[in-house]
Amino acid sequence: MSRDRTQKTYLCERWRAPAAGIIEAAATIFLLLIAVRFYNAGATAKALVAGGGSLGLLIAPWIVQKVEGACMPVARAASILAFIGAASFLMMALIPALPVFVITCVIALTTSSAAIPLMTQVYQDNYSDRQRGNLFSRTMMIRIGTTALFSYLAGRALSGHDTWYRWLPLVFAGASGFAGLCLAQCPSHALTASGGTHPFHAFRYLRQDRIFRQTIISWIFLGFATLMMAPLRVEYLANPRYGVQVHGELLTAGMIALLTGVIPNSARLVLNPVWGWLFDKMNFFVLRITLNCGFVLGIISFFMTGSLIGLVVGAIFFGVSNAGADVAWSLWVT
Is residue 196 part of a domain? Predict the structure, then answer.
């Protein structure tokens, strides 16, 4: 493994990390907040916005198969997906209508999450086994810090300024475009031919590998819970029908951003290097079980206590668990 490739990849990833942090804030907080507070969107529209990232994960095998068939370097393919996301955000900003907002949300979030397995291949090719968790967690710290800072600043800016919602997609477009430029500079290879042309050819491993099959089944049940909880936290706090109040008043955009972005991402920032170190040293399945327990405690505290303290504690548990999930998902699962 070339030291030059490792250093260039690490440099590109450090530059890309702030842009990725802004896109993460968009995906986990602000796009759904715009749908609820600015467009007063219905259930179907909110479900589509919330499900865009999950759609990207579902079509990722098809994307990987197409990239493999085109013999395209994986980082270049990821950069194309980022540019498509940037164009979607730009259209969202230029045409402030709910149907356009929903469609462009789905496209932008789908392209963002569909690139995850492509980047996993970049890390596998360019980072050694002994350094992979450590180097990934360092760039993830920059990303998490940016997510927390952007969530705080954007939340404060939006509080009491509802018309400012329409300008956020321009920021997201710039971030996605810059991420695409960084990815285009990242060294990578084309994927090795897998021996099949069907987009779901890799699913044969579910039949052949018992441990992998059991792990994926467990992950499906976990995913139903954790992936649904992320958008539900914003809906739970932003929608007046659920009556979440502080001092007798509905939560402001700044308070929602604090509970869903700033606090959990601050916890992620502190714990991320610890999980990166544990990934290189610890049995993966023990690590995953530990993370699952954290998610369970976060869900119980956030949604069932009915108090501000419970919301804060739940946000912290979400952040701590997500810090480990970032490493586990990006370096092992995909």
Answer: no
